[in-house]
Write a structure and sequence with these properties.
heterodimer, A: alpha+beta, three-stranded antiparallel beta sheet, 22% helix, 30% strand, flat, B: mainly alpha, 0% strand
């Protein structure tokens, strides 16, 4: 049985954002796990392409800068 | 060979590629890869339908009645004759063969035939994601055997240097000839193909392959709807 290191150890989480019209803002539609940006793009498109989005973007979760979390005060 | 024959070859290969991708929709190494296999399978099956639809406007439909009974009448490459047993076969097909078919479609879109210019353009947008998927998995490293097999079949499929793809390129119907198509996929994949010598005397210009054989019986039965009949209610055959 072949083990695929990149599926677990090397993979990182990406947040997926999309919008249906230019008038609405991008909102989070889900996430994917992938070892690099190219594969994350392919996975995001394959997983979340059921709707007619006019725009889709992905961001590495580790690149999101959190100001505060639930339960913390601003 | 005419342009219609070439378009039929792309369509048959895309159909088989789509089916083989779909077979991995629950067997890929991760859930995301499962979903990608299913999505790419649907894309390629859809592309084959569009390509079959181009045959009539091209003025000539080369499909004969033997396609109903003879698996060897289909023009798919040997790579698709049997279901893939290893993920590496999937990756090599995705990275090399899918990219080769896309390069040929790009060559049609940028050629002088209007129906192909218009109808095939959208495929190039969808194929971008197949390419990213294939190239990324290829970079992770796969065994040499399926990779070399896929390269060989891509080069054979482009045809001999003085064959009909070269003639169609010379006439402007295709924007790329065999040599340019080969260079195009090397450039896109950022890698050189292995040094492959093709015995063009053994090459079948209709099926664009040197190796004899045909797709497996089960897959051929499924394509013809014969497998579906096995699962029909017992009375359905009599009513029909």
């Amino acid at each position: 049985m072949t083990s695929y290191k990149r599926v677990s150890g090397d993979a990182v989480e990406y947040e997926v954002f999309a919008r249906k019209t230019r008038a609405e803002p991008l909102h989070q539609v889900g996430s994917v796990v992938a070892p690099d940006d190219d594969l994350a793009i392919a996975y995001a498109r394959a997983t979340y392409d059921e709707e007619r989005w006019c725009e889709m973007a992905i961001v590495r979760k580790e690149h999101v800068i959190e100001l505060w979390q639930p339960g913390e005060t601003s | 060979m005419s342009l219609s024959e070439l378009v039929l070859s792309i369509a048959d290969n895309k159909q088989m590629l789509g089916l083989r991708y779909a077979e991995w929709a629950t067997r890929a190494p991760s859930l995301e890869a499962d979903i990608a296999a299913a999505a790419m399978g649907l894309d390629d099956l859809g592309h084959s339908r569009v390509l079959y639809g181009c045959l009539e406007p091209l003025g000539e439909d080369p499909r004969g009645p033997d396609r109903e009974s003879d698996p060897a009448s289909l023009r798919a490459l040997p790579y698709f004759d049997e279901p893939w047993t290893q993920w590496a076969q999937f990756v090599a097909a995705n990275a090399i063969l899918d990219t080769a078919f896309t390069a040929m479609i790009e060559s049609c879109v940028n050629g002088s035939v209007e129906v192909l210019q218009h109808r095939l353009r959208k495929m190039l947008m969808e194929e971008r994601y197949h390419f990213l998927h294939g190239r990324s998995w290829l970079k992770s490293g796969i065994s040499a055997e399926p990779l070399e097999g896929a390269w060989r079949e891509a080069i054979e499929w482009f045809g001999p240097p003085d064959g009909e793809v070269a003639v169609l390129h010379g006439e402007g119907k295709l924007s790329l000839g065999p040599k340019e198509l080969h260079a195009r996929i090397e450039e896109q994949l950022e890698m050189r193909s292995p040094d492959i010598k093709v015995d063009w005397k053994r090459w079948d210009p209709i099926r664009r392959r040197t190796k004899p054989g045909a797709i497996d019986e089960h897959t051929f039965g499924m394509l013809r709807g014969l497998e579906e009949k096995r699962f029909a209610p017992s009375g359905a055959a009599k009513e029909a």
